[in-house]
Each structure stands twice: as structure tokens, then as C-alpha cells.
Amino acid sequence: MRKSKKGSFGRRGFLKGAAAGAAAFVAGPVAGAQQAPPAQSARAVGIVPPAGAVAAETEVAPPLVDVLTQGRPGADFMVDVIKSLGVDYICANPGSSFRGLHESVVNYGGNTKPQFITCMHEEISVAMADGYAQVEGKPLMVFAHGTVGLQHASMAVYNSFCGRIPIFIILGNSLDATTRRPGVEWKHSVQDAAAMVRAPSASRS
After folding, report:
1. Which of 24, 58, 156, 203 gives a 20 to 30 Å CA spacing to 168?
2. Running DSSP on this structure, what letter comes out for residue 169?
3. CA 174, CA 4: separation in Å to the nearest integer?
4. DSSP character at residue 76
5. Which parts of the chain fold into alpha helices (H)?
6. What is the C-alpha separation between 68 and 100, in angstroms, rounded?
């Protein structure tokens, strides 16, 4: 049931009033009127806090934060290395353990040769690398989280191993215990991330 608009202020009326008030405030005092000092007139209308209080205009230093970037990170150098290998694409399910390299591929490398392709699963990333190598005759690169990411990718890695298809995988891993953040980085870090998929050293006939 519709309510009558008579006697109700309404949204449109409120906006008109607000606009008129803002215009009057911006216009300032009437010409010829004596203007009081800013602090005195502002205090009179209750804008400036009383003596001893911190003024609203006082700049407050931002809190200290842990900055995770630097001017010339080593990941930029790694992007130069990857470009020198002629890699066209990188497939990956983004992970925190290689976040610096991911950022450098996009921002420093311009996301061009190699171009980052986001995948929903590590096994898909390696399967794409397998198919690309068979079609183009050269490897495609994969980024993977050092533990759980490589475990997800392991079946596709095994398929490529059986088919003798070259793939290039870079694993992220927080090896230095002094730089690991608390929580999941400790659970997702190992001493030898590639051990689970490394081929045995014994010669095969």
C-alpha cells in the first residue's frame, strides 16, 4: 500500500536541502561583512576542539607496517632469466610461496613472453604444459606451491614422465626458517620440495 507523500520530507527533498546548504557554505560570508579569525569563528560553531585537544588538521604518522617489497627484487632477475629461455607462457594456480616471482612476471616483465595464465589446479597447469610441449615442440613453464601444489601436480608430472614430455616447473618454498611467517608457511615448507617427483639416479635401460 502506497503512503501519501504529503507531510513527508522524502529523499528528493533531503538532497535538495543538502545541495542548497552546501552551496551556501561554499559561497562564504556576505560581501562587506567582517570576518572573524578562522580559529575563533570555527570554535564558535563547535568545529575546532577546545584548548589541549588535538586539532583535526594535525597529521598523524601512519602505523608501521611490514613492507614486503623492495626496489630491485631478485625475482626481477629471475624474470630476465626466464625471458632468456624463450618461455612464452607460465601456467599456475597462484600461491603465496612464489608471490614475489608472480608479481615480477606481471609488473616487471610486462606479462609478455612469458605471459601468466591462471589455472584452477596444479594438475591442470602441468597438463597444459604437457600438451603445449607436444604441439609447439618446446617446454611451457609452471609455477607451483612447494608442497601441496606439487602434490596436486604429481599425477600430471607422472604422465609427462611416462611420455618423455619436457616440462619446466619452478617451486615456491620458504626454506629459510628465520623468514617464514607464522602459521601455514611452516606447514607448507620443506627442505627438499622436489623430492617427491625426482626421478631415481640409477640408470634405466
Report:
1. 203
2. E
3. 67
4. H
5. 10-27, 38-44, 74-84, 99-103, 122-136, 148-163, 184-187
6. 9
The answer for residues whose C-beta is within 8 angstroms of residue 41's C-beta and 6 or more apart is 35
Cell of 141: 613453464
In the block, residue with C-alpha cell 501519501: 4
Which of helix, strand or coil describes residue 200?
coil
Burial class (CB in 10 A: 0-12, 13-18, 19+), 90: buried
Which residues does 189 contact at the CB level (< 8 Å), separation at least 6?
97, 146, 147, 173, 174, 175, 177, 180
β-partners of residue 168 are: 141
Peptide bond before 114: cis, by omega within 30 degrees of 0?
yes
Amino acid at 176: D
Distance CA 49, CA 54 (A): 7
Query: For cell 597444459, what's the residue?
Result: 128
Rounded to 5°, angle at Cα 14 from 9 and 18 = 150
**Locus of grid cell 632477475:** 77
pLDDT at 183: 78
User: CA–CA separation, 14 vs 128, rounded Å?
Assistant: 58
Q: What is the pLDDT of residues 75-106, one digit of tens each?
A: 999 999 999 999 999 999 998 888 889 999 99
